[in-house]
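Researcher: Here's a chain I'd like modeled. Treat it as a single chain, no partners, no ligands.
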Amino acid sequence: MARPKFLPDNFTLCLVGTVILASLLPVHGQAAMAFNWLTNIAVGLLFFLHGAKLSREAIIAGATHWRLHVVVLASTFVLFPVLGLVLKPVLSPLVTPALYAGVLFLCTLPSTVQSSIAFTSIARGNVPAAVCSASASSLLGIFITPALVSVVISNQNAGGASAWHTVWNIVLQLLVPFVAGQLLRPVIGRWIERNRGVLKFVDQGSILLVVYGAFSEAVNEGLWHHVPLAALGGLVVVNAVLLALALAITIFTSKKLGFSRADQITIIFCGSKKSLAAGVPMAKVIFASNAVGAVVLPLMLFHQIQLMVCAALAQRWGARDMSGERGAPTGDESHSGSGERGTATAQR
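Model: Modeled as a single isolated chain. Structure tokens:
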């Protein structure tokens, strides 16, 4: 039986189900403490496996395209925070202060890895450069995101720890497992490649664990009593405006700077997306436990909006090139072709 087109993907349905479960049956007391330890272990395992999966050869292949990477990183860590702050007087009345703090947190996050690469491949962009940019963004975000949070979300729901203490916690919980995975890649890398389902299970499972724990704590603190239905509708508008502006600016900038069509595609998809996989664990480390639920809610919604919009754009651009219209210049087509065979299915 064919899946209805209007039905979200399985992971999105699981996210919604997790929020509902946490709202009806939140974990608390000693069980919450044990659940927190379990979540920390799952997140550490997630970043360990990502480190073991990351191909050094693919990163080296795209690392020389420094102009493209500078544009992507500037879009991710400069453009988004500026938009969040500049638009605050206009957009913040649509949501609650706690939700807009989550929007600002969303603006500080790194780009996605899997879906950025996959959409770039589908649209026949420069896949090796996408691998490099998305991976660099994810790694640099471990250090840049906490620093940006301390600037753009000062005195709003932060956990109270200094920026350096937050960075140190993230290094211990995220970077150390990631580096350990990289060091052990020669030993377990082939096994990871053969068993990608394991990474997908840990990836999505750890996010669901963090979301359940975060929303349980938030529900215990009265989250849904402080988030009216109108604010949720306003949050959709806020996220849609941010994504539309990011897409428009990356499209305009990449053209004006003279990048090839394949590079433009890479800049657009890597520079306009935000990582749920990195954002949820970071929120757990950076923010007070009772604030995490409201903080990650804008990110969860933005995640789904960006997937639907970018999937439509990728399919449209890829089909246009395949139909014989102007595609990627000679030399870039080999990048898109090889990437399409290797990463054409997006997980998120």
